[in-house]
Amino acid sequence: MQFNYIANACTPSSSGRTIAMLDPSDGQPYDEIQRSNAADLDLAVRAARQGLEAVWHKFSAAERGRLLMRLSLKITEHADELSAIEQRDCGKPTKQARADAAALARYFEFYAGACDKLHGETIPYLDGYSVLTWREPHGVTGHIIPWNYPMQIFGRSVGGALAAGNVCVVKPAEDACLSLLRVAQLAAEVGFPAGVINIVTGYGHEVGDALARHPGIDHISFTGSPAIGTLIQQVAAQRHCPVTLELGGKSPQIVFADADLEAAVPAIISGIVQNSGQTCSAGSRLLVDLAIYEPLLERLGQAFENLRVGPAAMDLDLGPLIRQQQQQRVWDFLSDAQVANITMVAQGKVVEEAPQTGFYQAPTLLRDVPVTHRLAQEEVFGPVLVAMSFRDEDHAVEMANATPFGLVAGVWTADGARQFRMARRIRSGQVFINNYGAGGGVELPFGGIKSSGYGREKGVEALHGFTTLKTVAIKHG
Ligand code: ADP
To answer: Which protein residues touch ligand 1 with a CB less than 6 Å away?
Structure first.
């Protein structure tokens, strides 16, 4: 049984109710979390406010940095334990779970170093004045975290918020949150004062909604679906609470005829099979120059057929999806493809050892998907890659920009001038040229435009979102 973590103490929900945690690899329950309610959330917000006012605001930036660094080292010491927890919770292959624990440590390391490098400016003004700006923390920040990368998203969101001097109330996803409860304990062990990191588990429509509504939350970071992002904005707007939204994408991988396919092919595959396609920045649309469309699809088709899906602990190319509803969602997209006579190029295989009760889905490559079809417009959040061909650069740009999303894009071409033109013309928060995802990129600002959300997480840029700017004008004559 798992408990909320409030004011450095394991705390049961006042509801007395719990939610069963299912192992996605076999669909069986193996633990329980608290099904928290608005009263539990209120307790966490009060603890956070108390922690902020009594202790945390007295920490200098350098002291905060040292504490974040201690947590980073502690996470590294416990990396095996944390990755094992995340592996079971999310159904991640071992390599992925380990990479996630390493990324969590890296976020805290990065933000540890950033704490005392965040500063304002002086502004030249009228004679007799001095004007300066201060970057001040919002206060109590709320973090609503999805189930696909609990550790990574906690690291980027909470790491940045703490570095900027905030205290945090975290609402992880009901499907996967056990690693974060453990990280909060490790934070207490390295000396984080009570109330600085609080975790309250439960359903989104209950405790998540309570977080978005709570007047004691001064800023909300939300990562999740566009539909819930809209709800959060609406609720937060009632009290003019600032929000940062990361809502996913339908990111294109754009391959020109002069591309280095040796480099592009593995990146295209890992861009869609990583975490079984349950990645906001998955490269889920493949736009290919007509001149190389057939040979590239043939090559990718062979590679897809060799992909293997199985229980997380088998550490294959893909693990299971998070839950049955997610599996059903992918099936619905694939049956829509059949109805629309969309051609399947290839599919990987679910291994025989995979229990029937697990949530498995073979990676699937589809071709000639019409630009307006929902498979080319909506986020599947599963291992489904849709391929389309383009005639020339203008056509590629038009297709790349023709979705409601704008999170990430990959461009594969040897032509230097075209690399710059494409980077300028594509409407998204990140553009990768001759690579995709840049190995995680803790340092690289991340976020979207259009339905992918707004605000930036990761990198130093995130610290601007976790602070509010105060202008001080002094008239001294
Ligand atoms: P998914 O459909 O992939 O689970 P969601 O957007 O529903 O994505 O979930 C992302 C996070 O948002 C989770 O922590 C979830 O519990 C939370 N959430 C869901 N509904 C709400 C809501 N109405 N208000 C606040 N948070 C919510």
So the answer is: 144-146, 171, 173-174, 204-205, 208-209, 212, 224-225, 228, 231-232
